[in-house]
């Protein structure tokens, strides 16, 4: 017997029929002898619909009220799913974030979990029930409803799995797991069978949309094995773990898939996957004084706007005496107000010009094997050069290389690099079943 | 300055535009110098839609999960309304039933309020905010979400008004107040300008749909003046109170309406209004043993089915030695299982026959003036007889006479009695603006 936390995104519970399919899967897991805790997102487009309605009322909804509004979506899905599981003859109880003991700070819209007290969920399991928990929501110390922001339901699931010492946290989505690249861009992308949490973190941080960064960070910190898989099929998905799988889980995985997992590790490619990201813009500050502290002052201003900077490059053109150019990338939604803040500080910073470029794309190559394998960057730059693609910025970590290209070149870049690193499968493995969940 | 609790039903907040209208009314009230607490129902058909979805999943949803599901509706409407009020430049905060301190017992679906601790609402008011509270919901001692059942939002509003010592509880609906009869049946019905809580209780208990019985009971017990009025107009509605209105409220009421309220009280009719009810069925137990305790046993069985009996008549036909017939009326939704329970007890009760009649209607004449005015029942029976309408059952209280007729005769009966008691207005006063709220 294993304790399994299953997380279902919005596309897995888009309508009543989908809800019934999920209920049946929960019941099947339980009938196979396991304890099940379910974390569920709002149904289909519910969250977007609620946001649309709020937008019709005000362009600046108060954060507190917006959180109350949005959490209604998960209340609906969790209570309906509990009904559906009950209808299959298995007792189930639904719990709000507050009832499940998900304690957060008071940052509405992007609250951080500060404590987990899932007593009622634990009691439910002991009593032989399936516990169904609303994703994405928590309660603050002063009794306010909060939401966890993007990837919130994944985070709820992993945090619950950690607090309950679950054997695995299954993240159900609409594809069969993680792929070596986005199958919509690279049809020959392979499913990744196992991957370390560290590599997953790099992929998530650099544009791979299947799992949210915070959830993976939680999983790594608390050693929660993740299994990303499709809610539309029974196939084995991608196991994300830094420790060997619990043998009790074997029953959850089809034998063929297990065999596939035991392929010769020597043949594992050095690259786990390629992530891409179209959501960043680039700002270049031209001719800023090259004096100590001026770059610091620049990024202080940017930080005051709440923008997370991704890549930074500074270069000192030979033509401008004692002046530098600084380029950085940041989320597109932050670009406007950062540009305004910089413009307002033109005199203080003493730069000549501000350039703004929204048409950039970022490709990131991730693999633990890169650490020990020389020549990875040479192969990467060679592949891009051969495809006639210019590189704008470069940044690296121990297990990742990222390059910025023109937006229009991004897809070709992903395809070229995928092929160059021998990641192409001989047959198309990827099936995308629906939209993407929250 | 007065403290005013305003309750808006589902039809008053059916869509974004209606929501904005309500927000404007709230803001106008506040700008007139008053403190405002708002209780709001779910938008339009939200509750019915949620029930429909649940019905597609199971025919027997667990009560606990059904309550969590339904309360999502008020979370949506209250947070949107708070946004809309904020958008008008007045600070507003939304509170769930739990946050507003509405403590209930654990009877999901029909919870009773056992305590009111609206500290956060009181603090909001002190801080100059408009507090917006979800109607219909509360929290039990063991931290479960509960709903208050039919008329729940009215009850929330009146309970809050009582706990906060509000000067008035305004119940906004889609008609201009209480009328002497349902204007859809009697187009010449008059708006009732003032009425006692006792009379309102009788009207509500006997089919008048504008206010729920429990809310009126609460208002009477805690001396909360009610003002039932339309959210679609500025007209004065119906004041329900056993004490004179707070002079501070005068500013809320158009002067013309105030003048109308000060009409010669000598001309007040002895009858306040006529309620009608199509929701009851009749069961007749023929030939039950006329022995002590047999009727008690019969009604014990009925009570075990959770059915509230309204009218009871027992008669002893001359043809049946020592046997009686007992007829009673009960809510139509309880008729099936009560019939089954009685059928199962046929031997024990020793009756000859069970008769079931769904085609009955009930007319109730209510007026405090009836107490001291002889001849009311004679006039009632005369009017019905002249209209060729047979009376089946009769029951009376000190301020009410109810008669049961054939369902098909009910409308004509209401019209005939309305005319006979001189209630007809010379012009049509009633405007019905929309559907009915919860």
Could you give a quick summary of the protein structure above?
The first copy, chain A, is an alpha/beta fold and 438 residues long. Chain A is 34% helix and 23% strand.
**Strand element count of chain A:** 20
The order of strands across the largest sheet of chain A is 3-6-2-1-9-11-12-10
Oligomer: homodimer
Beta-strand level of the residues of chain A, as a percent range?
A: 15-25%
Largest interface: A-B, 36 and 36 residues
Shape of chain A: globular
The biggest sheet of chain A, with number of strands, parallel, antiparallel or mixed sense and barrel status, is: 8 strands, mixed
What is the secondary structure topology, with strand pairs?
Two copies of one chain form a homodimer.
Chain A: E1 3-8, H1 16-31, E2 35-40, H2 46-57, H3 63-87, E3 92-95, E4 102-104, E5 113-116, H4 119-126, E6 130-134, E7 137-140, E8 145-147, H5 152-163, E9 168-173, E10 194-195, H6 197-205, H7 213-221, E11 226-230, E12 238-240, H8 255-261, E13 273-277, E14 280-289, H9 294-304, E15 312-315, E16 323-331, H10 332-344, H11 346-349, E17 353-357, E18 360-366, H12 376-386, E19 394-397, E20 400-406, H13 410-420
Parallel strand pairs in A: 1-2, 1-9, 2-6, 3-6, 4-7, 9-11, 10-12
Antiparallel strand pairs in A: 4-5, 7-8, 11-12, 13-18, 14-16, 14-17, 15-16, 18-20, 19-20
Helix pairs in contact in A: 1-3, 2-3, 5-7, 6-7, 12-13
């Amino acid at each position: 017997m294993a304790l399994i936390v299953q997380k279902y995104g919005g596309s897995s519970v888009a309508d009543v029929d989908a809800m019934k399919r999920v209920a049946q899967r929960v019941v099947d897991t339980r009938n196979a002898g396991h304890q099940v805790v379910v974390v569920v997102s709002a149904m289909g487009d519910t969250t977007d619909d609620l946001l649309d309605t709020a937008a019709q009322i005000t362009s600046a909804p108060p954060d507190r009220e917006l959180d109350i509004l949005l959490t209604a979506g998960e209340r609906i899905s969790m209570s309906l799913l509990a009904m559906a599981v009950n209808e299959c003859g298995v007792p189930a109880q639904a719990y709000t974030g507050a009832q499940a003991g998900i304690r957060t700070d008071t940052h509405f819209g992007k609250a951080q979990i500060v404590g987990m007290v899932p007593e009622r969920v634990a009691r439910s399991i002991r009593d032989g029930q399936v516990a169904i928990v609303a994703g994405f929501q928590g309660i603050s110390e002063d009794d306010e409803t909060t939401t966890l922001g993007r990837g919130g339901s994944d985070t709820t699931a992993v945090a619950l799995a950690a607090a309950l010492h679950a054997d695995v946290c299954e993240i159900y989505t609409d594809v069969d797991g993680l792929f070596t690249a986005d199958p919509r861009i690279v049809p020959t992308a392979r499913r990744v069978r196992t991957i370390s949490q560290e590599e997953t973190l790099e992929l998530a941080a650099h544009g791979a949309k299947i799992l949210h960064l915070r959830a993976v960070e939680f999983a790594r910190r608390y050693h929660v094995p993740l299994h990303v898989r499709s809610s539309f099929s029974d196939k084995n998905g991608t196991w994300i773990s830094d420790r060997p799988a619990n043998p009790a889980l074997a029953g959850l995985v089809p034998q063929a898939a297990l065999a596939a997992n035991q392929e010769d590790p020597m043949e594992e490619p050095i690259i786990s996957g390629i992530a891409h990201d179209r959501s960043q813009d680039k700002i270049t500050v031209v001719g800023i004084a090259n004096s100590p502290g001026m770059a610091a002052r620049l990024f202080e201003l940017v930080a005051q706007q709440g923008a997370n900077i991704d890549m930074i490059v500074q270069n000192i053109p030979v033509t401008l005496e004692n002046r530098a150019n600084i380029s950085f990338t940041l989320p597109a939604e932050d670009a406007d107000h950062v540009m305004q803040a910089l413009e307002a500080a033109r005199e203080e910073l003493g730069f000549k010009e501000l350039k703004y470029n929204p048409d950039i794309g970022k490709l990131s190559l991730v693999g633990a094997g890169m650490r020990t394998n020389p020549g990875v960057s040479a192969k990467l730059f060679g592949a891009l050069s051969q495809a006639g693609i210019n590189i704008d910025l470069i940044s690296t970590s121990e297990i990742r290389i990222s390059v910025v290209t023109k937006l229009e070149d991004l897809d070709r870049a992903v395809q070229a690099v995928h092929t160059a690193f021998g990641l192409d499968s001989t047959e198309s493995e990827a099936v995308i079943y629906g939209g993407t969940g929250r």
